[in-house]
Design brief:
The chain has 99 residues and is an alpha+beta fold. The longest helix has 9 residues, at 3-11. The chain has a two-stranded antiparallel sheet with strand order 1-2. It is 30% helix and 17% strand. The protein is globular, with a radius of gyration of 15 Å. The chain has helices spanning 3-11, 29-36, 69-76, 88-92; strands at 44-52, 55-62.
Length: 99
């Protein structure tokens, strides 16, 4: 999603001007936290999983958490398998670190 699309979407809820843009990298949770001066647990990270048969799950989580494999399997019925970076653009529309 482009920054323009994100801003337009959030504007519908009165939040369009709350987007922070920085020239610093935000490709990792640690980099994003440093760029905006906050703690990793306050960063939202997206994790993309292959659920099989071409189905993709995008999970948004706090930056300091890890996936609970048992909980994932209970929720989705399959073992947690993250998408390879090369598949991200075709499946979700952006590259790793591109959100």
């Amino acid at each position: 999603m482009s920054i323009e699309r994100a801003r337009a979407h959030l504007a519908r809820f009165g939040l369009g001007e709350r987007i922070l843009q920085t020239s610093a990298s935000s490709a990792t949770v640690a980099q994003a936290a440093a760029a905006v001066g906050t703690q990793p647990e306050r960063i939202a990270k997206s994790l993309t999983f292959d659920l099989g048969e071409g189905v993709t799950a995008l999970v948004v989580a706090a930056g300091d958490v890890v996936v609970d494999n048992r909980g994932f399997k209970d929720a989705f019925g399959v073992k947690a398998r993250m998408l390879p970076a090369a598949e991200l653009p075709g499946r979700v529309g952006f590259a790793a670190g591109g959100v």
